[in-house]
Inverse folding.
């Protein structure tokens, strides 16, 4: 697994914004009410970010030598996969909400 690149996150952010904007445009053209993202979307995204940081903190501490006992490698891999998935999904949802 490679690091999540900034251009990939920006591309997903832009793709989400374009799809969100086109969806709003289609709803407006068909005289349907447009979608307004609730404030709970922002709260949920920040909540998920806090969970990812809290799960990844012991791994960071171990890598910087500030933790005496090792972290389970399976736990570290699960946190890594969860962090990557949430970064990509968060970029897409943020773009769609901005669109």
């Amino acid at each position: 697994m490679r690091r999540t690149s900034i251009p990939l996150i920006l591309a997903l952010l832009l793709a989400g914004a374009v799809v969100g904007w086109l969806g709003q445009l289609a709803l407006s053209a068909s005289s349907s009410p447009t979608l307004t993202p609730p404030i709970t979307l922002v709260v949920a995204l920040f909540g998920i970010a806090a969970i990812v940081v809290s799960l990844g903190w012991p791994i960071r501490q171990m890598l910087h030598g500030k933790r005496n006992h090792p972290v389970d490698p399976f736990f570290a891999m699960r946190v890594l996969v969860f962090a990557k998935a949430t970064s990509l999904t968060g970029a897409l949802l943020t773009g769609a909400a901005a669109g």
The helical segments are 6-29, 39-63, 73-98. The longest helix spans residues 73-98. The radius of gyration is 18 Å.
